């Protein structure tokens, strides 16, 4: 045997599937069996989004269909819901379909498909542009408009019938005159034919009953008078500003410090346009016009993307390319708290996050989205973008910066939205509607929708908002206008500026980020986790249990060689670890002890030290042809060559023992050392057995033909295999259910290994690594004939403990393990924990002869406590078999019943109650 080449690998054992640390999912999310969180709408949507397939298990309908209501069996296509045609026998596919189909709740749908807030319906303004919201009954000077839009004649007021939903057509002043007690009015009064008409002073409005005046809360208006904070007072209000701003006048907030500049591009350079001097100050020369610009104020860094697929960074007059091949970038923004970049890609219909040093980028969202403009609010961990949906639907979306908790803020269908921007200090989003020729705005929580109608005379190109000003460009040049006086437009300069970003330190206020001490290579702020962040890795790396990222590595063996390959981006690095004269039938590696184990063609098991080159024979009860290492306890599990005996060899003590004797044939074994289970493939069944041994439990009967091997994915807790036609099947070991990954998943050959999200197959002497997240072929590795086995090499000489392992009550955790067992398994004479922890401290005899030993052998109690109606033993055995009837001691003594029983009326016996 010869050691040809070995490089010490610093790899980490993944003891627990982590997407963050101790992750729990939020209310609008669904948790996969492997712990990952998905939007609730992805559950049973026909696409397997959990890597263990658990989101598509136990679904009532096939993919792409939804169930009819209870009592009406059957499923209908999702496209049939609310399409105007009854498909379910009870018509439930057309139940609860809103009149404003395509709009959000609380919106009204115009004839041209534009959605407006309901309070804009029949408000006297053409909010729909086609005037369909104002096709209401005309109201004369003496008529009354109800909140629902209906117009009442003068004769319908005070006729004793309620016509308006708020009762305003039947005020308490009906039939009264101003000459008598002011007509009941709290303020001004005017006589009308139907009674007394009350009116109110400025800052107040008339109540629904028409007599008293209520304070108008100016601060609750959709677009209030204050720029930042508003405090309502009786009949008025006052404003105050965020830190770093000062109040001018009564409502304006102006930034302290530097004068406002604009980051923009002009004639092959990126630079600042100084609004005070109107001079352009060059920062960096560029080769191509930028599609998008971003800046990091505190780090003095600038970023841009061009149509050549490159994303650049400039600092101190030096620039470099961070990322290549990003064709289709539409928008680029910076998380100024962490320095990370986010961008949208129209070509791949996805949102990405990338490290500011160019070390890697990851996909944040790529399902059911088509993002256009993007903005960030890192101080609230929020992400906003304009999204193209199915058909012609367009929405303004919001999510956490990890892509979770996604929701629609505004429906923008038919409005031609563009140039989304954020006033950070005001917490308001703004955008241009080309169709309405307006500037639209909404608060970051979705409230305060407002439209600056007919704002533009010509098509606008870019929009920026800072302090009290709107800035935009059109074919003539750069303009500005105060927000409270939108008609006072001022021309600033004749120029062509394709992109425009307000550059000021107050646009990126300082704050603490949960990501600062995370240790993640890429950190995603989140809205749900107590830690405030979740770790992710560049798309070409895998997340380790400590939050670090590693390039994927795999070990594979032929009959005489052991090899390692690493996928370092697009680079493939191969290493030959050892050669042997033995003929290897199976192998595994103890990464903690640096031992290679293999079974040879004669059934002998050998091990060889990667450190010293020492080789040893490993004892087994029978010749063994399959071996697998417990990475925690460092024991070796094996399957005999005659396929009837499964055993384990304790490597510390050097003795083997039998775990299971089969009555037929065991074709393969799959070791889940993390959870203390061994899975067997026997007679078409997947069986499960505890590592200490015992009777196996049937988990699943395999149906159909299995092509090649079945493999265990420890990270997602699944078994995977190919069926006829190369269809990938996934079995959740938690649910004991299978899921077909889908016809679009076609993996030729045999599945050889898996570690979520990666999958490894072998076909025609080529190992292929796949990414299960997007079904992408990551790399093909020619390996030659005679491949014995492939394993995932994601382990290290040091062990990373699981993050806060918890067993749900009434289970307990085994010592030194993440294995949970039921309390009923304690002291049951069976060794359920790997180290026998569950059978320790068990009482064989009570120290005092008069005591009662509980059945679970964990506690002794006084005899007087037995059958007293209260359980003192953990298992309740002191209250089992107790008499419920107490016989009287004499004819005269009154009968007393024990606790839990009551005396019958005749006083002769006790019964349970």
Describe this structure in words.
The protein is 0% helix and 39% strand. It contains no helices and 74 strands. Among the domains are: 123-213, Ribbon (Laminin); 219-253; 257-507, TolB, C-terminal domain (Neuraminidase), CATH 2.120.10.30; 582-701, TolB, C-terminal domain (Neuraminidase, 6 Propeller), CATH 2.120.10.30; 883-913. The relative contact order is 0.08. It has 913 residues and is an all-beta fold. The strands form 25 sheets. It has a four-stranded antiparallel sheet with strand order 19-18-17-40, with no helix packed on it. The radius of gyration is 36 Å and the shape is globular. Mean pLDDT is 84; it is low at 1-22, 796-806 and 884-893. The termini are far apart.
Short description:
With 913 residues, this protein is mainly β.
Q: Which superfamily, in CATH terms, is the homologous superfamily of one domain?
A: TolB, C-terminal domain
Return the CATH class of one domain. Answer: Mainly Beta
**Roughly what percent helix?**
under 10%
How far apart lie the N and C ends?
78 Å
Rounded Rg: 36 Å
Low-pLDDT sequence parts: 1-22, 796-806, 884-893
Specify the number of helices: 0
Q: Provide the β-strand percentage band.
A: 35-45%
Helix-strand makeup class? mainly beta
CATH architectural arrangement of one domain: 6 Propeller
């Amino acid at each position: 045997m010869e050691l040809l080449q070995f490089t010490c690998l610093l790899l980490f054992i993944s003891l627990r599937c982590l997407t963050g640390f101790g992750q729990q999912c939020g209310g609008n999310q669904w948790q996969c069996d492997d712990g990952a969180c998905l939007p609730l709408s992805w559950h049973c949507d026909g696409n397997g989004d959990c890597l263990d397939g658990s989101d598509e298990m136990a679904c009532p309908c096939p993919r792409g269909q939804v169930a009819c209501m209870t009592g009406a069996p059957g499923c209908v296509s999702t496209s049939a819901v609310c399409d105007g045609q009854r498909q379910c026998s009870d018509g439930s596919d057309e139940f609860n379909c809103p009149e404003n189909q395509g709009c959000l709740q609380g919106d009204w749908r115009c004839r041209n498909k534009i959605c407006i807030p309901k309070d804009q319906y029949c408000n006297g303004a053409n909010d729909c542009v086609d005037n369909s919201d104002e096709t209401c009954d005309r109201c004369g000077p003496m008529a009354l408009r109800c909140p629902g839009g209906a117009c009442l004649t003068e004769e319908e007021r005070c006729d004793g019938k309620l016509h308006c939903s708020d009762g305003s057509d039947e005020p308490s002043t009906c039939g009264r005159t101003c000459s008598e007690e002011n007509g009941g009015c709290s303020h001004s009064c005017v006589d009308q034919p139907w009674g007394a008409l009350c009116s109110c002073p400025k800052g107040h409005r008339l109540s629904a009953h028409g007599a008293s005046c209520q304070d108008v809360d100016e601060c609750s208006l959709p677009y209030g008078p204050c720029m930042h904070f508003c405090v309502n007072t009786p009949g008025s209000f006052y404003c105050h500003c965020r830190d770093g701003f000062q109040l001018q006048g009564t409502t304006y907030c102006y930034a302290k410090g530097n004068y406002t500049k604009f980051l923009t591009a002009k004639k092959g350079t990126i630079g600042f346009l100084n609004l005070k001097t109107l001079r352009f100050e060059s920062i960096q020369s560029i080769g191509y016009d930028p599609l998008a610009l971003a800046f990091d104020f505190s780090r003095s860094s600038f970023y841009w993307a061009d149509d050549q697929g490159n994303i650049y960074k400039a600092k101190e007059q030096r620039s470099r390319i961070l990322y290549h091949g990003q064709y289709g970038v539409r928008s680029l923004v910076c998380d100024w708290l962490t320095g990370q970049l986010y961008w949208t890609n129209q070509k791949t219909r996805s949102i990405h996050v990338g490290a500011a040093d160019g070390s890697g980028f990851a996909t944040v969202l790529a399902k059911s989205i088509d993002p256009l403009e993007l903005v960030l609010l890192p101080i609230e961990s929020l992400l906003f973008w304009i999204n193209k949906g199915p058909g012609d639907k367009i929405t303004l979306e919001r999510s956490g910066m990890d892509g979770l908790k996604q929701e629609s803020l505004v429906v923008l269908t038919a409005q031609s939205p563009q140039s989304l921007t954020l006033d950070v200090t005001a917490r308001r989003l703004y955008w241009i509607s080309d169709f309405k020729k307006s500037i639209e705005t909404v608060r970051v929580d979705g409230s305060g929708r407002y439209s600056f109608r007919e704002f533009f005379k010509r098509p606008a190109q870019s929009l920026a908002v800072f302090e009290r000003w709107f800035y935009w460009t059109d074919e003539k040049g750069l303009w500005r206008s105060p927000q409270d006086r939108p008609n006072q437009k001022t021309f600033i300069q004749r120029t062509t500026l394709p992109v425009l970003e307000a550059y000021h330190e107050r646009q990126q206020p300082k704050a603490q980020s949960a990501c600062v001490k995370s240790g993640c290579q890429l950190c995603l702020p989140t809205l749900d986790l107590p830690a405030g962040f979740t770790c992710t890795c560049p798309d070409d790396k895998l997340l380790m249990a400590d939050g670090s990222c590693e390039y994927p590595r795999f070990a594979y063996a032929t009959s005489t060689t052991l090899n390692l390959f690493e996928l370092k981006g697009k680079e493939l690095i191969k290493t030959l670890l050892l050669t042997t004269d033995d003929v290897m039938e199976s192998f595994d590696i103890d990464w903690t002890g640096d031992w290679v184990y293999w079974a040879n063609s004669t059934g002998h098991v050998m091990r060889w030290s990667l450190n010293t080159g020492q080789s040893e024979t490993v004892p087994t009860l029978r010749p063994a042809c399959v071996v697998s290492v417990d990475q925690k306890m460092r024991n070796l599990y094996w399957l005999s060559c005659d396929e009837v005996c499964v055993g384990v060899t304790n490597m510390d003590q050097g003795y083997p023992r039998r775990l299971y004797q089969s009555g037929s044939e065991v074709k393969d074994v799959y070791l889940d050392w993390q959870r203390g289970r061994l899975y067997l493939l026997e007679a078409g069944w997947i069986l499960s057995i505890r590592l200490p041994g015992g009777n196996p439990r049937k988990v699943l009967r395999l149906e159909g033909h299995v092509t090649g091997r079945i493999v265990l994915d420890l990270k997602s807790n699944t078994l995977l295999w190919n069926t006829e036609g190369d269809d990938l099947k996934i079995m959740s070991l938690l649910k004991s259910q299978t899921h077909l990954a889908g016809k679009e998943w076609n993996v030729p050959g045999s599945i050889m290994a898996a570690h979520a999200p990666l999958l490894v197959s072998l076909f025609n002497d080529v190992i292929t690594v796949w990414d299960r997240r997007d079904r992408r072929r990551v790399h093909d590795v020619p390996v030659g004939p005679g491949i014995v086995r492939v394993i995932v090499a994601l382990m290290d000489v040091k062990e990373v403990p699981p993050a806060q392992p918890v067993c749900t009550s009434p289970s307990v955790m085994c010592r030194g393990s993440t294995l949970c067992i039921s309390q009923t398994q304690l002291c049951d004479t069976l060794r359920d924990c790997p180290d026998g922890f569950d059978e320790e401290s068990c009482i064989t005899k009570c120290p005092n002869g008069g005591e009662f030993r509980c059945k679970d052998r964990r506690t002794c109690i006084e005899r007087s406590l037995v059958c007293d109606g209260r359980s003192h033993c953990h298992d309740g055995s002191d209250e089992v078999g107790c008499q419920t009837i107490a016989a009287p001691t004499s004819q005269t003594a009154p009968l007393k019943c024990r606790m839990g029983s009551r005396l019958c009326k005749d006083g002769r016996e006790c019964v349970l109650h």
